[in-house]
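Ticket 4471: requesting a sanity check on a complex prediction with 3-hydroxybutanoyl-coenzyme A. Repro inputs:
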Amino acid sequence: MGEDAAQTARFEARIAREDKIEPNDWMPEAYRRTLIRQISQHAHSEVVGMLPEGNWITRAPSLRRKASLLAKVEDEAGHGLYLYAAAETLGISREEMVGQLLAGTARYSSIFNYPTLTWGDIGAVGWLVDGAAIINQIALCRCSYGPYARAMIRICKEESFHQRQGFEIMLTLARGTPEQRAMAQDALDRWWWPSLMMFGPHDADSPHSDQSMKWKIKRQTNDELRQHFIDMTVKQAEVLGLAIPDPELAYDAASGHWQGGEIDWAEFRAVISGNGPCNRQRLKQRRAAHQQGAWVREAARAYAEKHGRHRQSTSFETRVAPAPQNEVVA
Ligand code: 3HC
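Returned structure tokens:
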């Protein structure tokens, strides 16, 4: 059935007066599809994002750092579950979303396809990646879709802890031995540009932004959020006494903003197309974790059936394409 013009007009009037759209409300099919796309990709990002950081839990330099990193990684898992639950309110099943990720047909944030080579990377990820995520997610707290906006409020509170623990690691290294300082600078050198890519392509090259801004899914554009991140982070780098790896970075008094060089968009396109440093490794790890966890899902399903709380969901395992046999880890 085509969409009724009157319903669309009523929907747009609701968006205009800042109503929150709830799961049982009427919404344009394209609005629903965009939210499913963005929220599921956000959830996938949280889950895959655990991998580069989890890599350092057993190698944290102290019990305090290990406890802090463990708590952060656990938080990311929870963020992923929140966001999958928010996406499910739009009519897509958890099995379908996870199946898309494992089959390699769903996107997740480009940033998580880079390796964490040193402990300094764990500081840079908390400081830069979670810092960028906070900038993006604070705007999403005002998203027009109720469940997404509400999930963001809880997630942002935890994200602040993530960013602070990352910055503290960087500060400790920057004020440490020359080797520790060099480790912090090396991490900043490798994570700066990929962190800028997290905000997406320039507005002029973003196929979704215009409509997402009209629907108030997005409240600020990719470039606005990126600029906010740059302006905030340059000052933090000064406190750390570390150099941002952009020789063109300079303060523009006319605009009141820091202006830098151009992002390598060829690298961005390569990474989001599956050809980043760790894309294949990340998917291989997720597929293996999913297969190793099959018994937990089967046990939960058996228990739910026995106690009459079974949810209608076709078996997911039968529909996931098995990992390609000749897969090569990057
Ligand atoms: N990584 C992967 N894909 C990206 C991307 C990125 N950094 N930036 C953009 N893209 C993709 C988009 O998904 C879209 O592809 P598609 O049409 O195939 O889905 C295409 O590039 C065009 O980009 P647009 O800007 O037009 O797309 P959006 O309007 O969706 O904007 C976005 C992109 C800003 C990432 C937006 O989707 C968004 O705000 N998502 C929610 C926040 C999020 O996902 N953050 C990821 C990090 S989560 C995190 O950091 C966890 C923290 O705890 C560490």
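Notes from triage: Residues 288 and 322 are 11 Å apart (CA to CA). Leaving this open until the requester confirms.
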